User: What shape does this take?
Amino acid sequence: MKLVKRILVGLLIVLVLLQFWRPEKNVSTENVVADFEAQTQPSTEVALILEQKCYDCHSNNTVYPWYAEVAPISLWIDGHIEEGREHFNVSDWASWDLEKKDHKMDELIEEVEEGHMPEDSYTWMHGKLSPEEKEMLMAWGKKVRTELAE
Assistant: This one.
């Protein structure tokens, strides 16, 4: 019993100490999606989907939920954001050549179609894409790819 108590006290101390270690926030005061939206021209509905379900992990500006202030959740969320931006960061859109833009839009379509995006861990708190939202995103992505090819 003493061993269990010591382990629990040790875990509590680690948890308290973790609260003092904060990852850097992914927040910008600039409109970090302006170039992306200007070139891809999403409809109002698609822009809303992107804002609500994509930009938190795939841009240089994240709207953090309250629970992102609590470690170890803050570290877990930071890892998701870093990985998301590594794969597809719309804030970098203007610096990409046409081939890379086309490739990223192809990946977006594929990930949405296969149900990999948004990730399950994100949808627990933010909800999944409806079939209609998926169709809108994929149709918009295909339209963007067609326009990039012209």
Q: What stands out?
A: The chain has one domain: 2-149. The mean pLDDT is 87. Residues 112 and 134 are 6 Å apart (CA to CA). The radius of gyration is 19 Å.
